Backbone:
């Protein structure tokens, strides 16, 4: 579908029922409210089968580095975890993994309130990353991060993936760094103990970083709204969240009818699809609003069918209306 708002409608579906239903990646702006179905973050795609020739992984994730021992220096021992943003990029057309991994968009030392935002790049191409284990069939990837000069490993990372209808989800990410007694700073604070790496449960901001956690900002807004509902409404949501079949907001016939309704707003929709002309700004605005109205009505009917109280319906629809309003403003 080539109409701009057909894409927006798919994006709205991603907000409502998650990327799998819409065939869309995670939202660029994760602060936009969206239903939290409890799915793990989408980190990539695969072609046909997980073991097939094409796999693409590209994602950003927040990582906390927790020190597993004391420093000789008392002030250093009182420090909290380090915070960093990791970009992981792996594109392969073979059974191996040519990896470009950007670590440390920023790293923040909470003890001295300092940050280094220069960014460090590690890659299989310059041999600063070594793949130590890979099995696309089971979704396991392990690699070491190496010292750029000595080529000795100083961090060991393990990623577990899950394949889900063409999408790759991050099931787990863990790792650790070896104790370091060779760094120049050890003359001041003593040997650096082992660091264990973990992804935070929820996204949070520690200026200038926003660390992406297992639960996005938008999903947390949904969770926070659910907490304001009555025990009965919370129980209904708990039942729906645990039932994959409940994600079908519309039947196939209803979904087709919604799409046809949008197309009828443009007299020569076929010409737009064929690339013979583009939508005018007024047509784009018309389709944006119509798509949002159609989705909100579909959600209202779904809430009624599911047994939510009127108060719950009002709160949840208001949150989804905010999603649509914010997303429309970005296009």
Residues:
């Amino acid at each position: 579908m080539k109409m701009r708002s057909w894409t927006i409608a798919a994006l709205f579906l991603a907000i409502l029922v998650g990327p799998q239903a819409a065939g869309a990646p995670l939202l660029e702006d994760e602060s936009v409210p969206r239903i939290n179905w409890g799915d793990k973050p989408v980190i990539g795609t695969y072609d046909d089968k997980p073991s097939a020739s094409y796999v693409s992984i590209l994602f950003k994730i927040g990582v906390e580095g927790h020190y597993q021992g004391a420093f000789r220096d008392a002030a250093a021992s009182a420090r909290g975890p380090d915070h960093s943003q990791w970009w992981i990029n792996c594109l392969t057309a073979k059974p191996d993994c040519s990896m470009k991994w950007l670590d440390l968009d920023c790293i923040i030392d909470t003890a001295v309130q300092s940050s280094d935002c220069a960014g460090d790049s590690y890659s299989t191409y310059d041999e600063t990353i070594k793949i130590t284990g890979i099995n696309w069939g089971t979704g396991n990837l392990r690699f070491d991060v190496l010292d750029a000069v000595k080529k000795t490993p100083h961090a060991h990372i393990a990623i577990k993936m899950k394949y889900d209808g063409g999408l790759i989800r991050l099931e787990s990410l863990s790792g650790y760094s070896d104790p370091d007694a060779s760094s120049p700073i050890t003359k001041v604070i003593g040997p650096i103990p082992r660091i264990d790496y973990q992804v935070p449960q929820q996204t949070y901001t520690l200026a200038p970083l926003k660390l992406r956690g297992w639960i996005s900002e938008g999903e947390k807004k949904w969770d926070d709204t659910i907490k304001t509902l009555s025990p009965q409404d919370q129980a209904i949501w708990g039942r729906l969240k645990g039932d994959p079949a409940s994600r079908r907001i519309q039947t196939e016939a209803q979904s087709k009818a919604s799409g046809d309704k949008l197309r009828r707003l443009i007299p020569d929709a076929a010409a737009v699809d064929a690339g013979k002309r583009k939508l005018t700004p007024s047509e784009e605005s018309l389709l944006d609003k119509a798509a949002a109205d159609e989705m909100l009505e579909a959600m209202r009917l779904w809430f009624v069918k599911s047994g939510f109280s009127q108060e719950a319906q009002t709160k949840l629809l208001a949150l989804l209306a905010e999603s649509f309003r914010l997303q429309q403003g970005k296009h």
